[in-house]
Prior knowledge:
Layout: E1 10-11, E2 13-16, E3 19-22, E4 28-31, E5 38-42, H1 49-66, H2 69-85, H3 87-94, H4 101-125, E6 132-133, E7 138-139, E8 147-154, E9 159-162, H5 170-182, E10 186-189, H6 195-207, E11 216-218, E12 235-240, H7 242-249, H8 252-256, E13 260-265, E14 269-273, H9 282-296, E15 306-312, H10 316-328, H11 348-361, E16 366-369, E17 384-387, H12 396-399, E18 406-412, H13 415-423, E19 428-434, H14 438-448, E20 452-458, E21 477-478, E22 489-490, H15 493-497, E23 500-507, H16 509-516, E24 526-527, E25 544-547, E26 551-552, H17 555-565, H18 570-573, H19 575-580, H20 591-602, E27 610-621, E28 630-642, E29 648-659, E30 663-675
Helix pairs in contact: 2-4, 2-5, 3-4, 4-5, 9-10, 13-14
Amino acid sequence: xxxxxxxxxxxLESHVAGRWQAGxxxxxxxxxxxxxxxxxxxxxxxxxxxxxxxxxxxVGGPALREMTTHQRAMMMKRIGxxxxxxxxxxxxxxxxxxxxxxxGWIDIEGGIGTMLSYASKGRxxxxxxxxxxxxxxxxxxxxxxxxxxxxxMPLEGVAIHINAFNFPVWGMLEKLAPTWLAGMPxxxxxxxxxxxxxxxxxxxxxxxxxxxxxxxQLICGRTGDLLDRVACQDVVTFTGSAATARKLRNxxxxxxxxxxxxxxxxxxxxxxxxxDATPDSPEFDLFVREVHREMTAKAGQKCTAIRRAxxxxxxxxxxxxxxxxxIEKTTIGHPGDAATRMGALASTDQVEEVRxxxxxxxxEARVAIAPGPVPEKGAFVSPxxxxxxxxxxxxxxxxxEAFGPVCTLMPYDTLEDAIAIANRxxxxxxxxxxxDDTEVAKTLGRGIxxxxxxxxxxxxxxxKTSTGxxxxxxxxxxxxxxxxxxxxxxxxxRAVKHFMQRTALQGTPDQLTAIIGQxxxxxxxxxxxxxxxxxxxxxxxxxxxxVTEARKVTLDDIEHFANFTGDTFYAHxxxxxxxxxPFFEGRVAHGYLIVSFAAGLFVQPDEGPVLANYGxxxxxxxxxxxxxxxxxxxxxxxxxxxxxxxxxxxxxxxCTVLRxxxxxxxxxxxxxxxAKEPRDL
Length: 681
């Protein structure tokens, strides 16, 4: 069990090449955000950064790449579930960061949930393989003997994650999830102010025994010459200020080696209230509630927090009064107190930074709600609301971020003005729009999307289900253009691909099939005496094929199918009308009749290894089929995906339906579930 925060500061350790190691210097004392008492001492002096990189590249990387995507996903699931079982140990430490229980939930369970989400998405959306096809094959020659296919494979370096202080658990886990799923090892460098919580989480992860050696290393303290040693297969991610992001991005080794660098920087996120809103409308209430929540959750220390609240000019005063009523009910105090609704900033340095930022913004804005009294000890700041009456000409409110419980109201007169105000942030992580008018939503959405990584629309219909303005989700992109850093963390598989190399393969279909492990168009087919549906995964091979007997389509078939299904579309039933259609010469067979006949031709009906058909992908009808045409099917095992925890797997079959043994009339993938081993029937 992890101990609660000690009364005397302890020396944090880094995890280096499989061992815990303390720095050799005096280090920096880190204080409890709520009490000011010492919590830990942080220092990385004497850590061999070259050893860490070598260990990740030579030990962690090969071990992760030896695993398939599904094996890595299952590893992440087990780690996530183990962390969830011990989450209370992290909550006990989290209060020292200034986080209330609800703030900690975002950080701790939000981070664990993100890892579990990626574990699930990896098993659902990626093949259980070492090589991932990216997109469809490209036929590069007229006869199909030369084709192309993009693939994704893990980079063979180390992902270096330099994280911010505000989310010491989520900030780490939301980056580790796509990194590990992609097959890369990681070095995590947390911000000093809250590194003790990150270190505790890393200890819990390593104690699970689930990670291969070298897959996770930790630096508690300065990175030294780490970034001077990066190479072309490494990745660097950074969360923090735009100024620091620019400095790191210009590290000579990063530039010279074209190292992938992604940043999530400070962001002047906007929330816009539509022109259709009134003080008594649900959208006005939602807008005020969201602005207040984003000011007080994590004491406003969220990269997605609303910094600029844009609203019709006539609603400024009603909004001030509504916010004042909510702020007056917000109890500020020790985050461990159940009555507390807003905790402390992460450090006293942050308090000074917020006060300086408010002063700078105040040069072009008036204070509408001044900060109130706060506890004497600790890094507390009370909410502050400013109003910039002329936001189209002001500069400071669009350029300076007060990273705390501060928001500036900005009135607009037209929707075009609202768009211009929002876009003056020069690139943000997220904007939200509260309106019940779809035309207002369309105008604002199309106007601001290009400068925002995510745009949330809220109204009375989604009030109970919306995740709200500031909640990054594993499925959606987290990042933004311009000032926000230009990165794309999260976003489902988009984030995973950042840690993989996309390569264009060109060659013969047989060569690419061998490399990728998936049957390519034009590759060799193997017809055997045993129907492929009689083979378990242990017996089935990529390229196993059945070519069926032919079946002639008759006019009676077409009419029976139409009357039986109710699909009496004129092209199937009326010869003259069908002939007037530019695509047909006369009555044609239904597309789904073709698919049904194809199944009747290729299916082996006896009980056996094939357990179920669970769908088709990429169905296309290429050429019309008329009465009198004969159909034949080529069915080829295209991709085999055994499931890690089940006694069956998925088989993707290439299904090609031919007319009169020559012309392709339909093409699609058939998806089946097949037993791993022969069934004893």
